[in-house]
Amino acid sequence: MANVSAALNRTQFTTKDMESLAQYAHKTRSEYCMGCAHICESTVNANIPISDIMRYLMYWRSYDDRNRAVGFFNNIPKEMRSHMGNQDYSQAEKMCPQQMPISKLIREAVTELS
Is residue 100 part of a domain? Predict the structure, then answer.
């Protein structure tokens, strides 16, 4: 409901407001996956669904919905989950437009959502 209310709000932002929002978005970009899987996933040979895993972490960390995150994460084949924490994501991190710490986040997902 809060999102609908915000979307219907016709309040005009000032230039300063827009600049402040842009600065905040830039500073926090490493916490938000844009879902551009074609960029990061093509750099890892193991066919790991990086953007999906980032979304599952968002369910847990941002929406406090751990059950949903765990449920989706555990739909990834067990064999894939068992080796995804040991992959090299350095190239994916270099390519990520959001500059997300992909290696750290994948390891967190493996540890916290398995």
Answer: yes
- Confirm whether 4 is domain-assigned: no
- The pLDDT value given to residue 21: 87
Among 3, 99, 7, residue whose Cα is nearest residue 54: 99
3-state secondary structure the chain: CHHHHHHHCCCCCCHHHHHHHHHHHHHCHHHCCCCCHHHHHHHCCCCCCHHHHHHHHHHHHCCCCHHHHHHHHCCCCHHHHHHHCCCCCHHHHHHCCCCCCHHHHHHHHHHHHC
Q: Measure the CA–CA gap between 44 and 84, rounded to whole angstroms.
A: 10
The residue segments making up the domain with residue 82 are: 34-113
Contact 18, 30 (CB under 8 A): no
pLDDT digits (tens, 9 = 90+) for 74-107: 999 999 999 999 999 999 999 999 999 999 999 9
